[in-house]
Amino acid sequence: MASFDSAYFDIKYLDTLSYQDTAIHRLDPRVKLLTTAIFILIVVSFSKHELTGLAPLLVFPVILVSRAALPVGLLLKKIVAVSPFAVLVGAFNPLFDQQVIAHLGGVPISGGWISFASILIRFMLTVSAALILIATTSFPGICLALERLKVPRALIIQLYFLYYFIFVLMDEALRMVRARNMRAFDGRGTGLRVYVHLLGALFLRAVDRAERVHQAMFSRAFNGHFYAARRTGITYQDGIFLLAWGAFFVLCRWYNISEIIGQAALRVMHMT
Amino acid sequence: MHMADALLSPSVGATFWAASGGAIIYASKKVRLEIDEKKIPFMGVLGAFIFAAQMINFTIPGTGSSGHLGGGMILAILLGPYAAFLTIASVLIIQALFFADGGLLALGCNIFNMGIFPCFVAYPLIYKNIVRDNPTAGKITVASVISSVLALQMGAFSVVYQTLLSGRSELPFTSFVLAMQPIHLAIGVVEGFITAGIVNFVRQMRPEILEGAAKSRPLSGLPIRNILASLAILALLTGGILSWFASSFPDGLEWSIEKVYGKPELPESVHNLGRILGGFQEKSAFLPDYGFKEPSSPEDAIPEADNPEPWPAVSAGTSVSGVVGAALTAGLALLIGLALKKKR
Fold first, then answer.
1. Peptide bond into A84 cis (omega under 30)
2. Which of A92, A263, B61, B106 has its CB 3.0 to 4.6 Å from that of B3, i.e. a possible disulfide?
């Protein structure tokens, strides 16, 4: 993981982006959540040697990023920075599956390389879908969607609290980490002992903070419900968004659009 | 270690979502019944604490690398299992969204791997039994280390299991397990000592917090077994039904091979995966579409390709693997249930 400062900055940036006002941001959170879920299910449902069939699905993140005015650089950076577990595991495929199943300009390509490439593409598609969802919906928006979808109250309240506390606590943590790092020289002072004490202190501060916040909320008549003044209800645009994308995803799954386009292009070339 | 969307098949992802979703519903009910007003913001702040703590690195002694905290056991000890489970789930949800750690489909697996094992297995079976009603610093340390190690071992194994069941990776079971378990043994020991350090620190400074957590009696009597049983059934159903959708599309491997060979299956060949898998392969050969694929002879496969199944085809052959996957999960859940029964 990146340094504390930059990771924190990224969260804040992503959070800020989610409060923009574009056509995508204005869509109902439920619709975006559902569309993203369908997208991810379709992406992972392709068999492990699929490459060309996955390509048309790239249209979804690309269009959303551009329509929602999201910074491409940040998203790419986050995709690269994300925990590399999938890439690491996938990288073994070429080793274990050396069966040649395709030839590219005379160069034999093994199934392992193809399935590894397929994992990389899946990885990119699913990670970008999740990031785009949060960057266009905002976290309270997603909580609202989950609430409407009858997710248990206890979890929703927990999510709201967690979201609000994260920004409070991260400021504390940021100061403590900076203080530690400035006093640490050549790695001394960043060991386990200091780490545990640092976390202990952070914990006590967090608990005190929670008590004060709770008292403040209680005295302002908090009764376990969060209210938001937001447009609710599914509109015409929401319906079109969900149906159009859903149809597109199914189409991509059913027909290999890359293949069809490729064949058409070849035919045109032969004719001319 | 976060499971990732890219390594998952839809049916495995959905099955674990069903299991984790069921556990969330159950834990929510318990939390609403037993928790006092004050604990709600406390859960929120502890989640934020874990979230922040995971972003702070420390230097691992003896090496140049750095590590950070997982935090499942700390939450279980400080909050009790149900509230801790919801807190872990919420932290993982935020990480899946803001860091895209793992992804949204893998979230079900990750909540299962990092929530269920520490809260509903390691905490009640190991930690509580060692510490009992009179915690001392020594007992807390021993209990924390053992339960952290165990929770991480189970979580790591679960990652291997989910990856293999999904069949997107070619890593053989044995090599994967041999890589994952020792790494997580080391991580577990470090995690255990950090957990112990923080819990002992909290006990010194704020003993009332620990007493509050210990009071929420976990897993008493029947209900947990009921929920494990219904989880198992839910997982079984989901696995069975969803695998029709998952694998009735023409298998892309066969599809792409057809392009090359003009036949849907590979000729008998250097495919040495089966040999490496050895005995395990034989047992798992009835999972044709999930990972342990061994090319059969071309003659067997041709008729299959002549009649592509309509979508979604309810075919016994494909849903067998889904049901078997779910059955394995259910078996796991049942084992947990049995283990609990013994202890009571």
1. no
2. B106
Instruction: List the one residue out of B118, B124, B178, B179 whose CA is nearest residue B154.
Output: B118
Determine if the pTM surpasses 0.80: no
Contact A133/B28, CB-based, under 8 Å? no
Higher pLDDT, B73 or B262: B73
Residue A108 has φ and ψ, to the nearest 5°, of -70, 140
Distances from the Cα of B178 to the Cαs of A6, B3, B146, in angstroms?
Answer: 34, 17, 20
Q: What is the ipTM of this complex?
A: 0.88
Give the tokens for residue B34: 């037993």
A220-242 burial, b at 16+ Cβ within 10 Å, e below that, comes to: eeeeeeeeeeeeeeeeeebeebb
Q: Which residues pair with B66 in a beta bridge?
A: B59
Which residue has better confidence, B26 or B218?
A: B26
Q: pLDDT at position B111, please?
A: 93
Please state, as a whole number, how many other Cβ atoms lie within 10 Å of the Cβ of residue B189: 15
pLDDT at B279 over 70: no
Q: How far apart are CA B191 and CA B196, in angstroms?
A: 9
What gap in Å lies between CA B126 and CA B81, rounded to an integer?
A: 13
HEC per residue, A89-113: HHCCHHHHCCCEEEEECCEEEEHHH
* Residue position matching structure tokens 């645009």: A237
d(Cα B227, Cα B234) in Å, to the nearest integer?
A: 10
**What single letter denotes the amino acid at residue A245?**
W
Q: At residue A110, what are phi and psi to the nearest 5 degrees?
A: -85, 160
Exposed/middle/buried for residue A13 (C-beta within 10 Å: 0-12, 13-18, 19+): middle
CB contact under 8 A, A126 and B105: yes
Region of B278 (left: φ > 0; alpha: ψ -120 to 50; beta: rest) is: left
Tell me which chain B residue has its CA closest to the CA of residue A7.
B55
Distance from C-alpha of A170 to C-alpha of B48, rounded to nearest angstrom: 8
Rounded CA-CA distance A40/B45 in Å is: 31
Q: Is B144 on the interface with A (CB under 8 A)?
A: no
CA angle B169, B171, B177 (to 5 degrees): 120
Contact in structure between A27 and A241 (CB atoms under 8 Å): yes
Instruction: Determine the Cα angle at B153 with ends B151 and B156, to 5°.
Output: 105
Q: Cα–Cα distance between B28 and B32 in angstroms, integer? A: 6
Query: How many C-beta atoms surround the C-beta of residue A130 within 10 A?
Result: 26
State whether residue B166 is helix, strand or coil.
helix
The C-alpha of A35 sits at a distance from chain B's nearest C-alpha, in angstroms, of 12
Cα–Cα distance for residue pair B274/B294, rounded to 1 Å: 7
Strand B58-59 versus strand B66-67 pairing type: antiparallel
Instruction: Indicate left, alpha or beta for A138 from its phi (over 0: left) and psi (-120 to 50: alpha).
Output: left
Of A154, A211, A176, which Cα lies nearest the Cα of B209? A211
Residue B244: CB atoms within 10 Å: 18
> What's CA B309's distance to the chain center, in Å?
32
Q: Which residues are registered as beta bridge partners of A185?
A: A188
Contact B98, A74 (CB under 8 A): no
Task: Report the chain A residue with the minimal C-alpha distance to residue B289.
Answer: A47
Residue B242: pLDDT over 70: no
Of A50, A118, A158, the CB nearest to B90: A158
- The one-letter code for the residue type at A160 is Y
